[in-house]
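ok here's HAD family phosphatase:
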Amino acid sequence: MRTKDTDVKQAISCVIFDLGNVILFFDHLKMASKISNLTGRNPENDFRTVIEDESWQIFEKGFMSPKIFYNKFLSLLKLSPNDIDFNSFKQYFNNIFYPNKAMITLIKDLKKTCTRLILLSNTNELHYEFIKKNFPIVNIFDAHVLSYKEGRRKPEQEIFRKAIRVAGCKAENILYIDDISKYTEVASDFGIKTLTYDSKRQDRLLKYDFIPWYTTSDPTV
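and the structure:
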């Protein structure tokens, strides 16, 4: 039976967070705009060409190396290494993230309470290594369940099963926060409490009292 966003007041011993557009915002068009200077094409079209190709999911499942993905990227956009070398590609590809300050405050506050914190993300090797170096908030999590290391992507059930095992508690004592409802629905099927996150409605984090003893230290939330 699926739980609802409002049904989260039972004691929570572990909070599982999505990464993109929850902890860190991102803008793929920032990269695409730079690439469009080379292709002369619409940046949104270039972005769709890449992200809708099967290589994107293969890369996020860890079945493709960064260098092979780079070569595929060049092929899809009809570019050559002379147009953009591997190091420049990594810079463009990675420099798309910026912090969600309110959510980062929440995570730091939760860490003080000894609540177990898990990161569950569809991501790839390049993005993850860049984020670890540049956004230290991810390093305070107790465990990371990552698509490229698990060979599974959300909404596949096996990656949620792995997250529950890593949480080390019953599903009903877990809260999962993700901005994509398709993913929170799958988590709910396991009995996990869920909150489908909307950054434009930060007040929901307090209104739902999703962790009874939690009070944010950030007055803007």
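+1. Residues 14-25+99-207 form a domain with the Rossmann fold fold (CATH 3.40.50.1000).
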